[in-house]
Design a protein that fits this description.
Rossmann fold, six-stranded parallel beta sheet, two-stranded antiparallel sheet, 9 helices, globular
Length: 184
């Protein structure tokens, strides 16, 4: 199965949430499978993992800023969305899911996602169970599913807030298995 990702380009969007640490293991697994990985790290994601850690693992520049003079003179947000064979958002916070569902574009990640017109998207939601079960989040999930966005998870289990419920991000190995199914 490792040949499936050889020479494939994955754009990994790491949004905010404690589950961002799992994205580092996902990068390692993707690299081991032969994929090239470019990353967008949101401001929230950078509260949990550092650009240096992400860059060291993916062996590429980490993109964080919509207003980067270097990247945006080359229309970085459009290029990032179109050069990927698959866009993966892991973790996908309630915020980025809401941005996707409602067409908001106020940072590099949401602008890149809005600029995407034919690259498949896979998201791995991660949030507190109350946030996941909130009717607004469920409405947003319904909207993005109607746009052929693939979801993996969330899973039931213990959370960082010492509560338990549906909202944990799927494990990196399970996300990788779903990437194999989703990649074109």
């Amino acid at each position: 199965m490792t040949d499936i990702l050889k020479n494939k380009s994955i754009l990994l969007v790491i949004s905010g949430g404690i589950a961002a640490y799992k994205s580092l293991e996902l990068i390692r697994l993707l690299k081991k499978s032969g994929a090239s990985i470019r990353c967008i790290l949101t401001e929230g994601g950078a509260q949990f993992v550092t650009p240096l850690s992400v860059s060291a693992l993916c062996e590429e520049q980490v993109h964080t800023d919509l207003w980067s003079l270097k990247d945006e003179t080359e229309m970085g947000h459009i290029r990032l969305s179109r050069e990927a064979d698959l866009i993966v958002i892991a973790p996908a916070s309630a915020n980025i899911i809401a941005q996707m569902a409602n067409g908001l574009a106020n940072d590099l990640a949401s602008t890149t996602l809005l600029a995407n017109h034919n690259t498949p998207v896979l998201i791995a939601p991660a949030m507190n169970h109350a946030m996941w079960n909130n009717p607004a989040t469920q409405d947003n999930i319904t909207k993005i599913k109607s746009r052929a966005i693939t979801l993996i998870g969330p899973e039931h289990g213990a959370m960082a807030c010492n509560e338990e419920g549906l909202g944990r991000m799927s494990e990196p190995e399970d996300i990788l298995a779903e990437i194999y199914k989703t990649i074109k």
